[in-house]
Amino acid sequence: MLTICAWCWGNKYGDHYVRRLFAGLARNIREPVRLILITDKYRDIPGVELARLPDVRLTKIKGCFARLRMFDPKWQLSLGIAPGIRLVCIDLDSIITGNLDPLFARPEPFMILTGANAANPCPYNGSVFMLRGGYRPDVWEDFSLRAAARVPYYEFPDDQGWLAAKIPGTVGWRAGSASGIYAFKKPGWPPGDELPADARLVVFPGRRDPAQFQHLPWIKQRWAA
């Protein structure tokens, strides 16, 4: 079974982000899927499991390092995620715009969005990634804030920089028409604001947020409605 999780801590994202993301996932995946919200607050989201947020201290630091716990086999097993199970992480402010089955029906042990960053030279973008249960536990075991500060980073150390250092050369989803995953107004996005016809998933890296663009018809229809 496919397992998809999103992480939510602090006050940046309200419950409507959670509900809209998971509703979009449920509508656009045909294979059996398990949806999990990893959070520091109780939220009643129909059809979505809640899991306690581990490593709260890491959420106080820029960089989304708490998500690296996904590579911890003990944490995986605590959620019933057996070795080999596909485990997807997706940002809460993503918009589902098409069927996602082809994106996740992949044999690779690790996939991540690539080529989506503009100023940041990191080849990976952590808006969406997928790993197999049990794969590369050293990504978590070797992690520390001090170690993360020693690998290349842009404005501040983050999880995608750590992943690029630990698992370089990954053949991931290429942002744009090659995958159907588009980063809004980032490399791979065509000129203008219109939704590309082949888009399956739109992510919003950096400071952009779908709430800022609710005037666009495709966002109003697929997210704000």
Question: What can be said about this structure in brief?
Answer:
The chain is of the alpha/beta class and 225 residues long.
Q: How would the global form be characterised?
A: globular
DSSP strand tally: 10
Biggest sheet details = 7 strands, mixed
Beta-strand share of residues: 15-25%
Unreliable segments (pLDDT under 50, ≥5 consecutive)? Answer: none
Helix tally equals 8
List the main descriptive attributes of the protein structure presented here.
single chain, about 220 residues, alpha/beta, seven-stranded mixed beta sheet, three-stranded mixed beta sheet, 8 helices, 10 strands
Blueprint of the fold:
Layout: E1 2-8, H1 15-27, E2 33-39, E3 49-52, H2 56-59, H3 73-78, E4 86-90, E5 95-96, H4 101-104, E6 110-114, E7 124-132, H5 138-141, H6 145-148, H7 159-166, E8 173-174, E9 181-183, E10 201-203, H8 217-224
Parallel strand pairs: 1-2, 1-4, 2-3, 6-8, 9-10
Antiparallel strand pairs: 4-7, 5-10, 6-7
Explain how this protein is built.
This protein has 225 residues and is α/β, with parallel strands linked by helices. The chain has helices at 15-27, 56-59, 73-78, 101-104, 138-141, 145-148, 159-166, 217-224; strands at 2-8, 33-39, 49-52, 86-90, 95-96, 110-114, 124-132, 173-174, 181-183, 201-203. The chain has a seven-stranded mixed sheet with strand order 3-2-1-4-7-6-8, sandwiched between helices. Helix 1 links the parallel strand 1 (2-8) and strand 2 (33-39). The two termini are 30 Å apart.
